[in-house]
Design a protein that fits this description.
With about 325 residues, the chain is α/β, with parallel strands linked by helices. The protein has helices at about 25-30, 40-45, 55-70, 95-105, 120-130, 155, 205-225, 245-255, 265-270, 275-285, 315-320; strands spanning about 10-20, 25, 50, 80-85, 110, 135-145, 160-170, 180-185, 195, 200-205, 235-240, 295-300, 305-310.
Length: about 325
């Protein structure tokens, strides 16, 4: 359990952006590639289509630029760029360095690999940097899983996809948005979902499914306890977009109806580090989050990692910034 946040300088999200590759791969396209069918995929995963193609750096530059423009920050004021990704362009250097240069930033820049929990890990890290004196952080979650997918394996190829989403996070006077958080990892379960260096993702789908529901509910419960809030206080859950049945089972166990979940996976598939911020941005762009709403982010992924956070949304975040 993390230490209390009392007295810690807070932060708010002041800008966001999303980027998806142009190429759309529908379930009907997949039917031509291996033995599967649209109805099975929709029934078992909730996915109708996904976007594929492009590089992690290129997608990150696009979403990052949108977020910076929306926040209106001076580029010179960004103190750190955190890029959550499991699919960097190269082994070395960090893809964050490539993105930083392209965006015209000069600041600390690093990649963070926590699989599908990556953006929430990054959100908590960004708040930590701000608590230690950073003023503004650009957080990007990007994955190009199509590059590490075996396109002949119907057990995984129906799920994975590419995308990117970015957030500008700025220091404020007072507690800011973050009320509580939880990070976890259980390395004993890494064998159920992994990719060797240069290899494709291998997954035991049923085992991942079984653990995912438990992990999401456990982590969300810890974050709510840390924040001192109850499930009835939550206005919107922004879960990792892996499988609609995992989300539905988790919401059910948390005691929430599905209309309180942000969903984009029908259009995007599982974009790993990008999945939670893509769903957040979609909810924001569609007016699903109002001033004062409590939002629960919860993710799980290879590792098996888990992360969750509770934020109290402020629609006029800019007014709170220094
Ligand atoms: N099309 C048609 N049939 C299929 C397909 C397909 N694409 N894939 C599997 N099947 C068949 C199987 O062969 C099996 O047939 P059998 O009973 O004759 O052997 C049957 O469908 C059922 O297979 P299951 O694997 O039991 O199907 P399940 O209902 O578990 O759904 C799925 C599979 C969608 C992969 C599910 O297990 C799942 O979503 N698991 C979690 C995966 C996940 O969340 N991964 C991401 C983690 S996050 C990260 O870090 C990347």
């Amino acid at each position: 359990m993390p230490a209390t946040r009392e007295g810690v300088r807070g932060a708010v999200i002041t800008g966001w952006g999303s980027a998806l590759p142009e190429k759309v791969l529908t379930n009907h396209d997949l039917e031509k590639m291996f033995d599967t069918d649209h109805d099975w995929i929709v029934d078992r995963s909730g996915i109708h289509q996904r976007h594929v193609g492009g590089l992690t750096s290129a997608l990150s530059i696009e979403s990052g630029r949108q977020a910076l423009e929306m926040s209106g920050v001076d580029l010179a004021d960004i103190d750190a760029l955190v890029l959550a990704t499991t699919t960097p362009d190269r082994a070395v250097p960090a893809t964050a360095s490539t993105v930083q240069h392209a965006l015209g930033l000069r600041c600390g820049a690093f990649d963070l690999n926590a699989a599908c929990s990556g953006w929430v890990y990054g959100l908590i890290n960004a708040h930590g940097l701000i608590a230690m004196g950073a003023e503004k952080v650009l957080l990007i979650g990007t994955d190009t899983l199509s590059n590490i997918t075996d396109w002949t394996d119907r057990g995984t190829a129906i799920l994975f996809a590419d995308g990117s989403a970015a957030s500008v996070i700025e220091a404020v006077d007072g507690p800011g948005q973050m009320l509580g958080w939880d990070l976890d990892s259980d390395g004993s379960a890494e064998k159920y979902l992994y990719a060797e260096l240069g290899g494709n993702l291998l997954m035991e789908g049923r085992e991942v499914f079984r653990r995912a529901v438990r992990i999401m509910v456990d982590s969300a419960t810890k974050s709510m306890k840390h924040a001192g809030v109850s499930i009835d206080d939550i206005a919107l859950v922004v879960p990792h977009q892996a499988n609609i049945r995992i989300i539905s089972a988790s919401m059910d166990r948390l005691g929430l109806s599905m209309d309180k979940a942000a969903i984009v996976l029908d259009r995007t598939g599982n974009t790993s580090s990008a999945s939670i911020p893509l769903a957040l941005n979609d909810a924001l762009d569609n007016g699903r989050i109002s001033d004062g709403d409590l939002v629960l982010f919860v993710g799980f992924g290879a590792g098996m990692s888990a992360a969750s956070a509770i934020v109290r949304w402020t629609t006029t975040a800019q007014e709170h910034t220094k």
